[in-house]
């Protein structure tokens, strides 16, 4: 019997926005180059490759599926207009995250006091499931996903953001420091505190040991 780690807590809810690094790196430079020359098919390929990740970022910031879908479209409009400003394909992901984060912050400022959804919809939970699970495993995954999401939404705003950037998007510490404009040591301490808070909140909500492995 073993317990889920904090990283697995977060990633089990956000599988839809985590794809393999090898897949993302494959031909990215060529795709970006073709996009800059106005190749519509290349742009469609770029959107397909990153749309789940962008939606996941938006959803974790705004907490509402419909708003996240609308916001994802807005983010890709910004990406398209600013594509020339990203010259290095190796920095595309942190550049994309920065644009997504800024768009989410702008949205939250516009929304002001409008209430945020408290739970995931069935559709969002279905998108977060791992492929190939049997019905019993799907049931367990749904239970964990709901619990993890509830715990995640109860984190402080600072802790929720660093969990998103580090545990879900798996950005390097240096990139997180640059994105948030804070020292590397501060990033490390924030992540440590965020992991503790997430673990405490998940435990308080009653997550059971993971018997799957």
Shape: globular
Query: Mind describing the biggest β-sheet?
Result: none
Annotation, overall tally of beta strands: 0
In sequence order, what are the helices and strands, one letter per element?
HHHHHHHHHHH
> Domains counted in the coordinates: how many?
1
Polypeptide structure, described:
By secondary structure, the protein is mainly alpha-helical. It has a single domain, classed as RNA polymerase sigma factor, region 2, helix turn helix motif (Rna Polymerase Sigma Factor, Chain: A, Orthogonal Bundle). It has 11 helices and no strands. The longest helix is centred in the N-terminal third of the chain and has 23 residues, at 40-62. The model is unreliable at 1-6, 12-19, 115-135 and 208-213 (pLDDT under 50).
What's the helix and strand layout?
Layout: H1 6-13, H2 21-25, H3 28-36, H4 40-62, H5 65-82, H6 92-111, H7 122-128, H8 135-153, H9 157-168, H10 173-180, H11 184-205
Question: What's the quick description here?
Answer:
The chain is mainly alpha-helical. It has eleven helices and no strands. It has one domain: Orthogonal Bundle (Rna Polymerase Sigma Factor, Chain: A).
């Amino acid at each position: 019997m073993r317990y889920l780690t904090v990283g697995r807590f977060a990633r089990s809810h956000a599988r839809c926005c985590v794809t393999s690094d090898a897949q993302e790196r494959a031909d990215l430079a060529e795709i970006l180059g073709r996009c800059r020359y106005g190749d519509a098919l290349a742009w469609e390929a770029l959107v397909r490759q990153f749309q789940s990740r962008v939606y996941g970022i938006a959803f974790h910031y705004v907490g509402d599926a419909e708003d996240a879908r609308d916001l994802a479209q807005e983010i890709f409009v910004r990406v398209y207009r600013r594509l020339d400003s990203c010259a290095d394909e190796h920095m595309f992901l942190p550049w994309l995250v920065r644009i997504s984060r800024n768009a989410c912050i702008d949205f939250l400022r516009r929304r002001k006091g409008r209430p945020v959804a408290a739970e995931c919809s069935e559709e969002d939970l279905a998108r977060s499931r791992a492929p190939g699970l049997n019905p019993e495993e799907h049931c367990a995954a749904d239970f964990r996903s709901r619990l993890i999401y509830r715990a995640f939404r109860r984190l402080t705003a600072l802790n929720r953001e660093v969990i998103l950037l580090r545990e879900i998007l798996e950005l390097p510490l240096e990139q997180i420091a640059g994105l948030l404009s804070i020292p590397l040591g501060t990033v490390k301490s924030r992540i440590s505190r965020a992991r503790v808070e997430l673990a405490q909140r998940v435990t308080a909500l009653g997550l059971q040991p993971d018997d799957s492995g």
